[in-house]
Please model this.
Amino acid sequence: MISFLKSSRKILGMNARNLQFIRPNNLRRARRLADDKLFSKRVLKKAELPVPNVIAKIKSFEELENFDWGALPDSWVLKPNRGFGGEGILVVYGKKKPARDASRLGRDAGGSLPDTWIKADSSLVTIEDIKTHVQNILDGSFSLAGVPDIAFFEERLKLLKLFKPYSFKGVPDIRIIVYNKVPVMAMLRLPTRESDGKANLQQGAIGVGIDLATGVTTTAVQGKNKVIEYLPGTRLLLSGIRIPYWKDILTLAVRAQEISKLGFLGADVAIDRDRGPVFLELNARPGLSIQLANLDGLLGRLRRVEDLKIKTIEKGVAVGMNLFGGEIEEEIEDISGKKLIGTIEKVKITGKDEKEIEAEARIDTGAGISSIDKELAKKLGFEEAVKYWEDFHLDRTLSNEEIKTLSANETWKRLEQHSDIIGVAKTYSSHGATYRIEIKLNLALSDIPIVSKIAIANRTGLKYPLLIGRRDLKNFLINPAQEK
Amino acid sequence: MNQFITLALANGIPLDTLVLVLILPIIVTVIAFFRQVIGIKAFGIYTPAIITFALLATNQIKYGITIFVTVIVVGTLTRFILKRARLLYLPRVAIMITIVGFSILLLLFVGGTFNRTGLASVSIFPILIMITLVEKFVAVQIEKGGRAAVILAFETLLISIIGYYIASWHFLISAILQYPWISLLTIPINIFLGKWTGLRISEYFRFRQILKPR
Model:
């Protein structure tokens, strides 16, 4: 109960956000700048911040009628100037080439047909569709107070290779809350099928919390409040993604605060494959879901930086990284690029038919290859292979002579005839030798996936059914003092 | 009875009007409380307040609720039909109001054939208010999506029903006629609500994952 009250005091609610942070820190002039995308783009560009380029603007119905549709490139984003919450944005990914009609000549053979573009869900968008959409924008259907608005076409950013597996169609962006020149919290927003390729949590996108010191992702939430670990429908972990240009991104966010004079700023930054970090949008009323993505309260963090006197942007970035960054352990992992583990670790094993079993394993740098108990292997769906091996009466300790005869008889050739057996391993130790079969097995140790060529052994009587040897420990550092 | 009330009545102000005007501050304060402390949003403050009075003006609350639900259901259905037509905002709302109006007429008619005469005798004022509710509904649909609009509509209904029971509470009405100034007590209450920065009850639920001890 006490811990509940304690953590509830750290959370920023709607009332406190409006009254204590937006009202006093985001004055009307600054809010107006943030709510006018074209204006803020101009101001930020003038201050030499990288922003997506504007392709064209449509300010009135007259301009819409006279618009040169042929001038639009293959891919673009159509936005309402005063839109909010990601509403009213239309993204196209390519132009559909009209089929060439062989019976005609010259321009009539194709190309003179009306232009059509392709959306995220591969549905088609005609000029008529775009016109209606622009009309709705001009009418103010998507603007904050329903006032008449301007529509503009913007270049579509190119997706970074790193984000490709995580992102459905759209480009992920990074939301950073900046207060008093200090970046206090950040999340990576991944567009999903539900969100129609848009990076907006309210529409079903995924928010992934980010460790401010390292730029490595931590916990994740989908939509309003569903905490998730993996990317839905896949085995991709959402934690541990290292965001490139991290310090540059934080610097960009703090600079944007300085320029816009929004004391409580939600800065949206994206990474373009060619241009690097690009500043997307200023937000004067940042949402509160970022707290769920990070599983941490914002109010606690804001309170820690509110009285600081921050003179320079560099200082602000450094303070944010230091205050809201990872712990020592993660730093070691950072420097070495390796994960720190203890001598006994829980391992997730995926057997045949995607069956998952969790088991404790001894981490043993004295062994070369990993091994698994035959009973556990049976449970994982390798019953046949184990039986096949048992029929050779090899699931026991052998003498060196026996091993020699086995090798001479080329027994391994016969063992390897079974489709699950990918190899045979001989081991020698002080209490005898063994002749083991090897199978391919997917393990996850401390959330890092390993494809192991693992030996099946008779480990009855041993405490742990699993032993992880040197061959599978290349990406780890072992700390014997670490508790599991 | 209070002197002020007696004087007002003597000057020809109807009693109903007096009661409604004096009770209005209490209703809107309750709505503000629901938003700031509990976290039930509804369609702003005007819509739930006016729906409350519409409910008061129908003979029985069940008829008011029936009409409200009909408006929302028909409004949602028409949205799907009109979505494809791709119309501009005002003409679209005009069509929706027309369709909703006719549906209400049909409802009254059906009510009549089942001898629910109470439904047909509902006065035109609350019916019109409910029909125009559809504009607010469409606006929210565009802004926040269909699901959010339906949720907000039912939050509005909930608050309006609570408002209805407060406004038809005899003890409160006689108290307010005794001491009309208690209506002004809502001002300090609202100042308090306006300065309230604590978490809303709904936010304890929203952020439960963070609050969970780990």
Q: What stands out?
A: Chain B touches chain A at residues 36, 39, 86, 88-89, 139, 142-145, 195-200, 203-204, 206-211, 213-214 (CB under 8 Å). The mean pLDDT of chain B is 88.
